[in-house]
Structure formats: C-alpha cells, structure tokens
Amino acid sequence: MLLITVVTGQPEEQLPQLQQDLGRYPQLDLHPGKNMSSTSFMPDVILATYCYAGERPSVAAIFKSVWMSIDIGSDQFTVYRGANASDVLQQHKVASGQLFTLLPWRVRHVRLPPFEPTCVGVETVERYSVQLSVRHVDYWLALLLAAGLALFVAAEPLSTNVVFHYSSGVAIGMFGAVLVAVFVLSRLLPRRSSALAFLFTGWSLALYLLQYVLENLRQHLIRYRAYVLGYLAVSGLLSFAICYWYGPVKDRRSQTLIKWFLQLVGLGCVYMSSSMSEASMALVLLLVGWQALPVSVGVRMRAALRRRLFRPKPRKLLSEQEYLEQSAVATRQALQELRQYCRSPECDAWRTVSRLRTPTRFADFVEGASHLSDEEVLEYELEPTTLLPRDDDDGASEDDW
C-alpha cells in the first residue's frame, strides 16, 4: 500500500521514541547504478528506508528523471514515500494501526524528484534488490513539452477546425460511454457493503481497486474484445451522428472557450514536462505573456526575430562578363516569348502590321529570324558602347522595324 503523507512535525514527547525506532531500521543511501540487496539485513528487519539526496538544479537537467526500481519476485510488499526517514517510519506506524492493511500496492518503479531529498521505505519479508537509475534526458518529458507547446500554439486554428471538432466529439463520446459503463457496473455492487468498505478503508480501497482494474484491464480486453470493440464502435458512431447533427461550432464565444481550454491543457503539459518547477513555471508565464501581447506587437517581434536568426545574404555585384551573359539569356527568353505571343490568337496581326515600317522583317522575326540585321550588328561592333543606357536614350521603338 503506497501512502504519501505530509508530516509537519512530531510532538516533543514522541521524539525520543522516534529516534529509537529509527535506529532499529536500516537507512541506506541510493546511488546511480548501484544495486543494493536486502540479504545484508533480512530476515531480522522487514522495513528498510532508501534515501536519495537529490542534486542542485541546473539548466542542463531540465529533462532529468530519477527512478527507483524494486526487483522482487512476490507481490507481498508495501512501499512508503516521504521527505525523510522519519516520515517513512511515521507512515509505517499509521499503516500498521489501520484496520485493513492487507491491500497491497505493487509499485516496482518509483519516480523520485531529482532536485529534492526523498526517502522510500520498502516493507516485506521477501528478498529483493533496489537500484537507482538516472535518465539525464527523459525523452518522454521532452515529448510532453513539445506536445504542450504545439497544442498551445495551434489552439486557435484547432478551435475552428472541422476535423478536430468531429474527432474530439467522437473521443469525448466514447469516454463518456466508458464512464456510463463504469457507473452501471458500480450500481450492481451492494450499496451497504461497499459503503462500509469505503468508510473503513478510505482511499486505500479506491486506489487498490484502481490498480486492480488497470492490471487486469488487458486480460479483460482480450477476453471480451468483441463486446468491448462493438460497444466502443456503437458509441463512436452515435457521437459522430450527434456532432454531424449539430454541426461544427460556429459561435465565436464558443470557439474562444475551446481555444482557452486547449491552451490550458497545453500549459499543463508544459508545466509537467520538467521536475524543475521554476523553469517550467517561467516557460508557462512566458507563453501567457506572449499570448497577451497585441497582434501588431507580436508580428513586429516575430519579424525582428526572423531577421536576426535568418539574416539575408548581401547582394553580389555582377561583373561585366556576368552582366553580358545574363542579359543575353534574358534577351533570348524575352524574344522567344514575343514570338509566341505574336503567333497566338491574342495578338491583333492586322493592327500590328499597320504600325510597322517593314512588315516583312517582322514576319521573318516571327518565323524565327534574327531581330537584328547585319548592318545593325556591324554598327554595334564598330562603335563603342556603355553598359548603362543614357538618360536621353528611349530605347527601340516600333518604327525600327
């Protein structure tokens, strides 16, 4: 039975007895990678306390996670967790004085806060071993952070998305169907006996039943998979029909409420993605502050950040040879486009020919001849030219044809 309590202090008359009890039970320090066996103190002692000192918070350890693994071949053991050995011993005494204590909470992997001192007590008569494993980068925490950020950013488009509307509606309907099934099954239990059991055992019975259901869920799903799949399929179809009947949410206020709910879920994922509460809370406040900024300020900040991260490359000046090559390619392409236009029905051939000095030369150009005559080419090669046109040069006109 896993008991997590908060002990604020001990009466002064109980301190000597508590110190005496602490001396009876071994207290061992946990170190990463070190396998600790219970053969050194069993069977004389059935309760041992394992303490993790924690470490100093650092930015590099944002996604760090610490796990304590219990390797035991039996389910007859109890786990206690507290801030120190005194808390663990106090929980052990409270559990020993309860009327019902034979409700095992089989937790073989206990997650410890990386930056806080924590003690875990293991009570059993079986032999076991304990090992502390440290994950410097827990990819599940990083994935949770990425999912939270993505959900927070995409909350507004998702609130108006039709696919998200139908998929979330079907998911909520199926979840509600499961809750209805649980409620119906709970009504089948004897009211008086279940109420008395909950009264005497409290949350211990509730946690035990929850663990029992989760552990046997796979077995029940495999045995009754046809009924389970049929029930979920019918509930999903009914949920889809209801969503289709009412249609997507079009009210602006309803869409705003959906957006806020998705953003709250995203912020919750961001906060739970790190054991360093200061860093996760700072990121949550940063996201909330960013969302509260006016749209114009946000656009300017994003543009400035984009310019700072992706600076445009300086323009490269062309040499004379590169200028001539690019101008020749561009001229060739423009002349080809002009020929295609003149051959298309969009061109008014009679009007164009009537405005030209030499229509035959234009016709030859359209058929593929050069746009320059031999005399013009010779004159261009003999006379000096400049790369930049003069201000008084208006370019070629239609009379040149």
Automatic annotation (TrEMBL):
<keyword id="KW-0812">Transmembrane</keyword>
<dbReference type="InterPro" id="IPR019358">
    <property type="entry name" value="NEMP_fam"/>
</dbReference>
<keyword id="KW-1133">Transmembrane helix</keyword>
<keyword id="KW-0472">Membrane</keyword>
<dbReference type="Pfam" id="PF10225">
    <property type="entry name" value="NEMP"/>
</dbReference>
<protein>
    <submittedName>
        <fullName>Nuclear envelope integral membrane protein 1</fullName>
    </submittedName>
</protein>
<feature type="transmembrane region" description="Helical">
    <location>
        <begin position="196"/>
        <end position="214"/>
    </location>
</feature>
<feature type="transmembrane region" description="Helical">
    <location>
        <begin position="167"/>
        <end position="189"/>
    </location>
</feature>
<feature type="transmembrane region" description="Helical">
    <location>
        <begin position="226"/>
        <end position="245"/>
    </location>
</feature>
<keyword id="KW-0732">Signal</keyword>
<feature type="transmembrane region" description="Helical">
    <location>
        <begin position="137"/>
        <end position="155"/>
    </location>
</feature>
<feature type="transmembrane region" description="Helical">
    <location>
        <begin position="280"/>
        <end position="299"/>
    </location>
</feature>
<comment type="similarity">
    <text>Belongs to the NEMP family.</text>
</comment>
<dbReference type="GO" id="GO:0005637">
    <property type="term" value="C:nuclear inner membrane"/>
</dbReference>
<keyword id="KW-0539">Nucleus</keyword>
